[in-house]
UniProtKB/TrEMBL annotation:
Cis- and trans-homodimer. Can form trans-heterodimers. The keyword Signal applies. The keyword Membrane applies. Cell adhesion molecule that promotes cell-cell contacts and plays important roles in the development of the nervous system. Acts by forming homophilic or heterophilic trans-dimers. Keywords: Cell adhesion, Cell junction, Cell membrane, Disulfide bond, Glycoprotein, Membrane, Repeat, Signal, Transmembrane, Transmembrane helix. It comes from Pleuronectes platessa. This is Ig-like domain-containing protein. Signal peptide: none annotated. Residues 23-161, 166-261 form the Ig-like domain. The lineage of its organism: Eukaryota, Metazoa, Chordata, Craniata, Vertebrata. Its main location: other.
Length: 303
């Protein structure tokens, strides 16, 4: 376990706090977890995680615990606020006399974790809140402020990051791929990773001699859609070749594959003539073979 300290006036992510009541901020590291807390001169502190994250639609807890060492103080109110682009918005309030209040638009999705907070005579030392059905718009800094008597206000902050898992699919651009005599390039498959946050990375794995194009679209809600097309010149050599799309999202790897079905004209060969045919030679045979897709069904011999 290690502990490091920083000045209370140092910049904080996603906004700054009014910390005139907070002499210093400490961060305690236990394993891979950082616990951030503010320490007052008389020993009170607000303990919070420095960062939290979750996926859209999931549940996440924002921890806030008040450590009240000697001399004891009276907690008059606890206020949770959302801090985004320098603007504060009240989320939830716990008051010993007035009870618990969760404000719109958080009312249906935010609650205090501890039942003791909701009692008629509440216990406000642990005012951890729970977000359910997390949304992209929830990404912000959140302040937990304790109003105490006679020590004044104590507060701290957690930065919440919201991830969005993308929708990924691979499709053939046309059900029928036809090899043309002009040998023109065409897009045969598209790999799409839509509405992800952070954005995905698309790669292709194939023996085909083609090329990939990439396009990124940044959506208004902060997600990114990545599209990649694979372009080849259809031919008999590309028929039955496997094409695999690899999408990497954070630490996840998603793959999808198709086998190309290319239609091409017959390539005809006559086999059996060895260059040494002579009069009255027996057991000779000519065979007509045709390589085509779809396969040849009718053969005709003409002299």
């Amino acid at each position: 376990m290690c502990q490091r300290q920083q000045d209370a006036g140092a910049p904080r992510p996603l906004g700054s706090l009014a910390s005139s009541h907070i002499p210093k901020t400490s961060i305690m590291v236990i394993g891979d977890t950082e616990i951030d807390f503010t320490v007052a001169g008389d020993g009170q502190m607000v303990q919070m995680d420095s960062t939290k994250s979750g996926f859209v639609g999931s549940q996440v807890e924002l921890r806030c615990i008040f450590s009240n060492s000697n001399p004891p103080v009276k907690i008059s109110q606890v206020t949770w606020q959302k801090l985004l682009n320098g603007t504060k918005q009240n989320v939830a309030i716990a008051n010993p006399a007035l009870g618990v209040s969760v404000l719109s638009p958080f009312k249906e999705r935010v609650s205090f974790k501890q039942a003791a907070v909701r009692h008629r005579t509440p216990s406000l030392e642990d005012t951890t809140i729970v977000f359910s059905n997390l949304q992209l718009s929830d990404e912000a800094a959140y302040i937990c402020e304790y109003t105490t008597f006679p020590a004044g206000n104590r507060e701290n902050m957690v930065n919440l990051t919201v991830f969005a898992r993308p929708l990924t699919r691979m499709t053939l651009t046309t059900p029928t791929i036809v090899a043309r005599p002009q040998k023109r390039k065409m897009t045969v498959a598209t790999c799409l990773s839509a509405n992800g946050k952070p954005q995905s990375v698309i790669k292709w794995d194939t023996r085909l001699k083609g090329e990939a194009t990439f396009q990124e679209t940044r959506n208004a809600n902060g997600t990114v859609t990545v599209r990649s097309n694979y372009v080849v010149v259809p031919s008999r050599e590309t028929h039955k070749q496997k094409l695999t799309c690899i999408v990497t999202y954070r630490n996840e790897r998603i793959t999808d594959s198709v086998v190309l079905n290319v239609q091409y004209e017959p390539e005809v060969k006559i086999e059996g003539f060895d260059g040494n045919w002579y009069l009255n030679r027996q057991n000779v045979q000519l065979t007509c073979r045709a390589d085509a897709n779809p396969p040849v069904t009718i053969y005709q011999w003409k002299l």
